[in-house]
Amino acid sequence: MKRDEAAVRATRHALWIRTTNACLAAIALTVYAGGTAQAEDACQPIRDAIAKLNAATQFQQKGIITELDGGKSYSLDYVVSAGKEYSRRDGGSWRIGSRQAVPLIVDGKPAVYECSRTGTGSLGEAVTVIYQYKRLTADHRVRDVKAWIAEGTGEPLQTEMIIETEPNRKATFTFSYNQQADLPAVDGQ
User: Fold this and answer.
1) Domains of the chain as residue ranges with CATH
2) Phi then psi for 96, rounded to 5 degrees?
3) pLDDT tens per residue across span 116-143
């Protein structure tokens, strides 16, 4: 009889350990899934800001590219209108091309990931939320990006990133949603 009781106790103990392990695994999965959901939620304002940029029918974008080692810089200017993109460098002649939307998915993978809200700030009179994230480009490069997004409207106001395709360069882009941006005169158009 003592053997039967010992066997029953051993069986109950083994069952209790399996049940406990299953519960701990479920708790761990819930915590992991909750953490993943929170990380994904941190990316949503960035994806929403990019979607606003892609949906805007007309806006102006200005940028400064600065070499990290030498301090040399040049300016870029873009005006987007409908399906066209007008661009120039250092105030030179305008060129015209097809508008390129910023992809949110690249080959089935999210183009915006590992997002975190790092603080708040201001650009001019706009109150901003500052985010850092990784950006997968269409050519499969990964860039670390810092973005300032308008708190009230969710529009992207500025991004800053290191451009790996051109070593020792840092790029700062400022986005402007001037719906009345003047279309430039383009050489030969």
Assistant:
1) 47-176 (2.50.20.20)
2) -120, 140
3) 999 999 988 999 999 999 999 999 989 8
